[in-house]
Design goal:
The chain has 317 residues and is an alpha+beta fold. The chain is 37% helix and 23% strand. Helix 1 packs across helix 3 and helix 2 crosses helix 3.
Length: 317
């Protein structure tokens, strides 16, 4: 999109001309901007009725002017560093391509760039090509489902949904992105406990009038001690692992869990401790390290992994 042709740029120039007392009119201004006089008339009406600009037409001067010299259009003060940070942050949201977030943010940035002062030379569109992010693949979310769920969440209203082919009435309580995938935490109608639903598996959603029942829900406690994508009100358990020296650097270069503790051992290995919930996810995460990871505790996790390895061996015989 050509920034010089956007409405906001036209409004800013109209503001400057009227402030200088140059009395711009629809015909001459339209020719300059290569648009129709009706477009400029709509710009004037937008400034007058939406932005509250005190604009009147002067028949003698044959142009528009401000009747209040102290009126100022809404403005945004931002330096190049702040604009760069905003663009990088929006670029990071591209990992959530299953939602309308990325497209809407890009639209917001386009509008924002139009109201930035001329002293800022950075073009958000150019910055988009200089930074990229990657994330684990996630299930795409239907745009209409996203909009309805967000509306229900913010307005605290129940939803009628079809989830994996089953129709249910839920109270949406909290939405979280876990490892690149969106999850909705809910209470089902006539149930007291809380459940975690994959937003991408909601096939249809309809907004209801009834208010949500969120008594007893604590998002911080529910999401606490989450290792990967499982969250819930299960009691966390302590895990202690030892990694071989061969992969010690790889283990130390990343934060695997919010409450983790690490210790470098004399042989160059690494001891990693954390509290987590979701035994299946913990088992799968540990097994992904293969022979380079040894479970020191709890014993039942070590036995669970041993059973899985034995089952894998038997399946290949």
């Amino acid at each position: 999109m050509n920034r010089s042709k956007t409405q906001m740029r036209r409004l800013m120039e109209l503001d400057v001309l009227m402030r200088r007392g140059e009395y711009p009119n629809c015909s001459s201004f339209a020719r300059k901007w290569e648009v129709s006089p009706k477009t400029i008339q709509r710009d004037i009406e937008y400034m007058k009725y939406q932005l509250g600009a005190p604009i009147e037409y002067d028949a003698l001067k044959r142009g528009f002017c401000y009747t209040d010299e102290f009126f100022m259009l809404p403005s945004i003060a931002m330096n190049e560093g702040e604009l760069t940070a905003l663009v990088i942050g929006s670029r990071a949201l591209e990992q959530y391509r299953g939602t309308p977030i990325a497209a809407k943010l890009e639209s917001v940035l386009e509008k924002l760039s139009d109201v930035l002062p001329d002293s800022i030379s950075l073009n958000p569109a150019e910055l988009f090509s200089r930074f990229s992010f990657s994330a684990p693949p996630s299930m795409p979310i239907k745009p209409d489902v996203w909009e309805i769920v967000v509306t229900g969440l913010l307005s605290r209203r129940r939803l009628d949904i079809i989830y994996q082919g089953k129709k249910s009435v839920i109270s949406p309580l909290h939405m979280a992105n876990l490892q690149g995938a969106w999850y909705l935490f809910v209470r089902f109608y006539d149930y007291e406990n809380f459940r975690q639903l994959s937003l991408g598996r909601i096939e249809k959603a309809r907004l209801l009038k009834e208010p949500v029942n969120d008594a007893g829900f604590d998002a911080q406690r529910f999401l606490g001690n989450t290792l990967y994508r499982f969250a819930g009100d299960n009691e966390p358990f302590a895990v202690k692992l030892v990694f071989d020296a061969e992969i010690a650097e790889q283990v130390l270069e990343q934060q695997w869990h919010p409450n983790q503790k690490t210790k470098v051992l004399e042989d160059g290995g690494v001891e990693l401790e954390f509290s987590a919930k979701g035994d299946v996810e913990v088992k799968r995460w540990i097994m992904a390290w293969g022979r380079y990871c040894t479970v020191k505790s709890p014993k039942w996790v070590r036995e669970m992994i041993d059973d899985e390895v034995d089952a894998m061996y038997e399946a290949r015989r």
